[in-house]
């Protein structure tokens, strides 16, 4: 009885001027009484939000109809939902540290040019300075022998069995799984004696030359002749050993350089001469590879120019050089190929320009569809055109052919 009186009192309190009081309700649920002033439009618009929290649905309809307010519930809302109190609103989360950092970086002034002078015009310096005749191009002969190898036909001469084959790895060769593996296995399957020189692929030139010197001395002691096969930086170390120790030339039957930066490497030059990149390799080489960052600087153009002028490569050693280039999105080295092409206009394999891979006095194989990794690492089928084993077998055969 008391609840009915409370409902009637609440309804009467909501009476507007010039209207009749609301009839009493028989609901037992209490309602909240509001007193609406005639000129309080703001309060009347806020009224529905108040009563939705504290008044049962049936009473809301009765009061809403009296006040001319909508009598339908919001979409996707049931009376049971309106009876439950709303959760308190949470304050907006503070921006994260990454967001604050991004805002700070966007507010910084534009950075000054940092990439250094570069090596524009330096590639091919050795070829321009050479006074000798142009090298003999063995590319057609290479493709002829490569077709025979792919058919399973022999291409190596009979004398190949008499020599020992010393393979020399290039930069980061110790860190790459499968590096020169197919090259070694192919020569071993042909019944040849193969030895991998224990050079430090991130070490200095002088230290690795000392290792190769001992390898040649061992062969000399046992009366063996040697065919040296070096990939990338390993090819530079092969030629440097013979230039520094002429007394060991008689031990070497032939030399094969695969994509060797004999004249220098554009990538190594930019890494060594750009201050920010130089600090990066000074930090990364000792920490990640236990190497020496100066081994990269030794492949820059000024360093190679100084070494070659002081220690020229002997012209009386049969030598075959592989010079390659490629510019393809399917290559793993495409970003570096595009960098050298767009900045300098150089044709490269991603590490070495083709003109810098030609050793003076050597016969040359020029390929325009091979990147720097294909000569030493097996690639994915359909993305590469050459197998490291096929390539090595053909290059050795060319080196042993009579001139």
TrEMBL record:
Gene3D superfamilies: alpha/beta hydrolase
Region of interest (Disordered), residue spans: 73-95
Coiled coil: none
Lineage: Bacteria, Pseudomonadati, Myxococcota, Myxococcia, Myxococcales
Composition bias, Low complexity: 84-95
Name of the protein: Lipase
PANTHER family linked: ALPHA/BETA-HYDROLASES SUPERFAMILY PROTEIN (PTHR31934), OS05G0557900 PROTEIN (PTHR31934:SF5)
Biased composition (Polar residues): 73-83
